[in-house]
Write the structure tokens for this entry.
Amino acid sequence: MSEYVPENMEEVAVQVAKRQVHGEKVTPEEVIHQAVPDILQALLDDALEGCYDEVKWSGYHLVVTDAMGKQIGTVESQSESFIDDFKADADAIIDRFETVTSRLVGGR
């Protein structure tokens, strides 16, 4: 993953501090909200060897669309929200997203 996409709470805290030093007011929850789809996007891009699918928020879940704009999957949080999931166990989200990526990429 990119150094700009935090993968755990320690990296979230570092990113919050860096952004606040530059005058940006940001909360850990906002950083996590951006990191969650970015993590799935990075895994998909890696698996497909390019940026063909797109991950976006749709309410409280993530929607994955292909290059033609067709929805190919959705991912829901395990608890109340992905933010809660990330705070509880960010590694579990990454493991889950790796499984989801394998399923979505499948035989393409």
User: Anything to note?
Assistant: The mean pLDDT is 94. The first strand starts at residue 54 and ends at 58.
